[in-house]
């Protein structure tokens, strides 16, 4: 006998004439929907270059709060009048093709399932799904060139039939997490770029530059040793000697040589002053590198722009030898968690933070000890319960910490639990510069600081740059994802390496999507809220409420009351 879930997957139902939709008409939760209800619109017919898709599941994401608060002034809406041209939340969506326009019949088929890659760019302009392009908080909608013809091609990822709807929808947030450990920094001198190399006038060290010096179109030298000047002049394409350039007048030099966008690559020989490094770092271009080569620490902490680390992928690299080229390359600059290491996840009680923790626990050759911090005891208790079976099966120790009313500071807590060795990796999930700066203090000299939460460009935090070139410390950050990141997550899910839906803490149907948004804002549930648009009358329920409300679904949950495909099938049997 065919189950309701199988019938649903096979589209063994007629497409309705209307679609229930939560449009957004302005800033504030009160402007989502009409009269606190979803609206009904006619299900449209696709044009020849469009698909009609059914929305199967949508994850609610806290990043939408900025859009809710700002409305038309949000950067991705470009001041459009939402009263006349509303948008729709829901960028974590999975879709099934219902109808295919004539021109797309060779590429898409009815019944195929896709996950949306919402980080869309067209002609270099961000037109993200769930922002510029209305998102998935509807039952049916059209997909056309705005998604299928982007700067990187189609932004639909075909989903394996082995994935449940929840798992497919969560490929997007999981892809963002995975991207945090994928090299986004440029780690070689830029081809055709502008490189500035600055040194100390009294430096007598004989430096080398064994590879990469032929890449820049222009190399500008300021106060470097004569032997190094001769070396650069023999290898580089176009060399300018400008001993008048220093940290004090670098802004004028950047305007002269780079039209103010910053140098693609900066090399600092024998750095001495933290203040100078602070000022120099502000003139590194987006995706640029600042390479420090020296044997002595600078005289203090550098005020690093932690916003640019996250959004602009600036690479701070270095080495303590004499060959400038030794700083570059993947081998010296790791971006993933250290094997058998000690990892700390700061402010990781929310859904995305939990994904970071889960990935670390399940990661092959990942850390053996994990500390998770949050200011909410309920969230920490939920993490301990939810991940108990994972930590046991992966031989990983998990410890939680709440700084509220705790006599032991977090740096002291890390030092105690690491037996004085400190952390190999620190992942910061809180958009707070002070917390970012503190987090750098309890990492090893050769550790890695990952800034997952973004703060505005121009936000400064004091960090130790000496450890970058003396001990190979890493400061990294990422924003957004690619369809390749989602693919990696899907492949790992199919292979059984990760279980993306473990982060689900509550479920609901279309009619309670707005309630779900409010619950997300209020942090009512210790994990992800998932909306199933086709289950219109499903109430908003935490997984801990299922035993009483939906016992058949509760019985299908995994260890630690975790969401899985079995629970999803039971839910559709009960509510479809």
From TrEMBL:
It holds the Pfam family ADH_N. Keywords: Oxidoreductase. Residues 48-143 form the Alcohol dehydrogenase-like N-terminal domain. InterPro entries: ADH-like_N (IPR013154), GroES-like_sf (IPR011032), NAD(P)-bd_dom_sf (IPR036291), Zn_alcohol_dh (IPR050129). Transmembrane segments: none annotated. SUPFAM superfamilies: GroES-like, NAD(P)-binding Rossmann-fold domains. It comes from the Bacteria. This is Alcohol dehydrogenase catalytic domain-containing protein. It comes from Agarivorans aestuarii.
């Amino acid at each position: 006998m065919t189950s309701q879930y199988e019938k649903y997957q096979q589209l063994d139902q007629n497409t309705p004439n209307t679609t229930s939709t939560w449009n957004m008409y302005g800033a504030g939760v009160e402007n989502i929907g009409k009269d606190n209800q979803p609206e009904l619109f006619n299900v449209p017919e696709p044009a020849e270059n469009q698909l009609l898709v059914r929305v199967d599941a949508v994850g609610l994401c806290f990043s939408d709060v900025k859009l809710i608060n700002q409305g038309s002034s949000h950067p991705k809406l470009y001041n459009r009048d939402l009263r006349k041209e509303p948008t729709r939340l829901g960028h974590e969506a999975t879709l099934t093709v219902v109808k295919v326009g004539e021109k797309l019949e060779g590429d898409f088929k009815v019944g195929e399932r896709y996950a949306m890659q919402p980080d869309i760019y067209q002609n270099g302009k961000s037109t993200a799904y769930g922002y510029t392009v209305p998102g998935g908080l509807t039952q049916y909608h059209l997909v056309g060139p705005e998604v299928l013809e982007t700067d990187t091609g189609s932004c639909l990822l075909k989903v394996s039939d082995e994935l449940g709807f929840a798992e497919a929808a969560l490929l997007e947030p999981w892809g963002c997490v995975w991207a945090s450990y994928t090299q986004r920094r440029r780690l070689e001198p830029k081809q055709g770029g502008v490189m500035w190399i600055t040194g100390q006038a009294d430096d007598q060290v004989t430096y080398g530059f064994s590879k990469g010096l032929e890449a820049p179109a222009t190399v500008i030298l300021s106060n470097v040793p004569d032997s190094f000047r001769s070396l650069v002049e023999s290898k580089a394409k176009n060399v300018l000697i400008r001993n008048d350039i220093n940290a004090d007048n670098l802004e004028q030099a950047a305007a002269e040589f780079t039209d103010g966008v910053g140098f693609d690559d900066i090399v600092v020989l024998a750095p001495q002053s933290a203040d100078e490094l602070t000022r120099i770092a502000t003139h590194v271009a987006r995706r640029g590198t600042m390479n420090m080569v020296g044997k002595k620490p600078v005289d203090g902490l550098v005020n690093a722009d932690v916003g640019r680390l996250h959004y602009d992928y600036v690479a701070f690299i270095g080495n303590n030898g004499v060959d400038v080229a030794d700083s570059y390359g993947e081998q010296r600059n790791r971006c993933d968690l250290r094997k058998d290491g000690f990892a700390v996840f700061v402010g990781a009680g929310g859904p995305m933070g939990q994904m970071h923790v889960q990935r670390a626990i399940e990661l092959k050759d990942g850390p053996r000890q994990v500390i998770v911090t949050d200011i909410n005891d309920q969230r920490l208790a939920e993490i301990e319960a939810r991940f108990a079976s994972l930590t046991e099966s992966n031989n990983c120790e998990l410890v939680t910490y709440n700084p509220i009313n705790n006599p032991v500071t977090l740096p002291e807590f890390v030092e105690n639990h690491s037996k004085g060795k400190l952390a190999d990796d620190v992942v910061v999930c809180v958009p707070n510069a002070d917390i970012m700066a503190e987090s750098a203090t309890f990492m090893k000299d050769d550790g890695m600081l990952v800034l997952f939460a973004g703060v505005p460009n121009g936000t400064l935090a004091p960090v130790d740059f000496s450890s970058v070139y003396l001990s190979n410390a890493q400061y990294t950050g990422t924003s957004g994802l690619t369809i390749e990141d989602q693919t990696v997550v899907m492949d790992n899910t199919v292979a059984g390496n990760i279980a993306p839906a473990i982060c689900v803490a509550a479920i609901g149907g279309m009619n309670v999507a707005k309630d779900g948004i409010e619950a997300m804002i209020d942090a009512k549930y210790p994990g992800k809220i998932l909306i199933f648009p086709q289950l219109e009358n499903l109430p908003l329920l935490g997984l801990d409420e299922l035993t009483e409300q939906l016992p058949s679904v509760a019985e299908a949950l995994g260890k630690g009351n975790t969401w899985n495909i079995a629970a999803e099938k039971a839910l559709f049997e009960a509510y479809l």
